[in-house]
Amino acid sequence: MNKLRKGDQVIVIAGKDKGKKGVVLCRVDDTHLLVEGVNLVKKHTKPNPMKGQQGGITDKAMPIDQSNLAILHVGTQKADRVGIVVSEDGSKQRVYKSDRAPIATPAASA
Question: Domain tally for the chain?
Answer without folding.
Answer: 1
